[in-house]
Amino acid sequence: MLEHKNVLCSSTKLQLKSFNIFAVMIKKYTIRDIAEMAGVSKGTVDRVIHKRGKVSETAAKKVTTILKEIDFKPNLIARNLKTNKTYHICVLLPDPIKDPYWIPCVKGVNEVVLELSHFGIKIETSFFDPTKSKSFTAANLVIQNNAPDAVLLAPLFFKEARIVMQDYENLGIIVSTFNNDIESKAVKSFIGQDLFQSGRVAAKLLHSVSKTGDLAIVHINEQYENAVFMQEKERGFKSFFNELVSFNYSVLQCKLNQEDFELVLTAFLKDHPNLTSIFVTTSKTYLVADFLEKNNHKTISLVGYDLLNENVTHLKTGSIDFLIHQNPKEQTYIGLKFLAEHLLFEKEIPKELLLPIDIVNSENATPFMRR
Fold this sequence. Notes:
alpha/beta, Rossmann fold, 7-stranded parallel sheet, 371 residues, 14 helices
C-alpha cells in the first residue's frame, strides 16, 4: 500500500490529491487457478513450477505459457510470506506544486505501486521546497527518524545532500538518487542523464542554428554554487565551444531570479548586443521565451529543458528552438522499481543507469507529450 505524506508543505496537501497517488490490488494466482487455465492437474503445475518429477512436453509448454502470461513468481511470493516482512521505501521529491517539472515523478511512483501491489511493500512519498535547502534537510531528517529500508531522492542541494547521504549510511538505510548525480559511496544507484553531455548537446543544437554571435548560459532561480547539475551542464556547454577551432565569440553567463527577472535580463541584453543564442539550464525556459517574444528579440535562438506545457507552447510557435527532455517520470519509475525489486527479490541494482538525451522540436513534440 502506498502512503502519501507531505511532511513540510501542509498548504499543498489538498492540491496534491489531483496527482492520484494510489495503490491497486492485483489478483494473486494459485496453483489451482493455473491448473484450470492450462487444462492440467494441480500436480502437473506443481512439478513444472518446482522443476521436479516427469511432465509431458505438451503439458509443460501449456503451464509455462500461462506462467509467463500472468508473470507468476511463486518462489518470490513464498519467500515474502515466510518472512512476513513489509518493506518500507520513502520517496523524497521537490514539491510539484512549486515546480511542475516534478509532477511526472508522482506518476512514476504510481506505476511502481500498481505493478508491485502483489507484495508486502509500503511506499511513502514526501515533498520539500525546491528553493530552500533547509526544507530539504528537514525532510530528510523526518525520513531518517522513520527508519525506512530504502530511500529514493533528488539531491538538489549538493552540500546538504552530502551530509544526509552520510547520515543514511550510518543508519544502514539504502539510498538511490535520480535527476542529479552526487559523488558519495553512500549512494547505491543513480538514475538520470549525463549532464555534462547534455550541456554539449545543447551547445551543438545552438551552433547548428546560429553559427555567429555570442552565446549566453542562463541560470534561473537556483543557488548556482550549490547546484552541481547546473555546473555540469554549463561545463559541458563550454567544452563544446572550447574545442571549436574557428569559434571567435564569447560564451557568457547570466543568473536570473523571478523578482528582478526583466530588469536584469534587459540590462544583460543591452550590454551584449552581439548575443544571438541563449541556453537555459532549467525547465523555466518559457520565462526567457516570454521575455524575448514580448520585447521582439526574434533573432535570438533559444534552447532549454523539459516538456512543461508552457515550454511546448513556445516550441510550437518558434520562440524556443529545441527542448532537451530529461524524462523525470522514467527516472523516478526506474529508480524506485530498482529499490523495490532489490528488497523484495534480492535483485542487484546497477550503480548507474544513464537515460538517453532526447531532443525535442516542434515536429516531434506531440509523441513525447503522450508518454
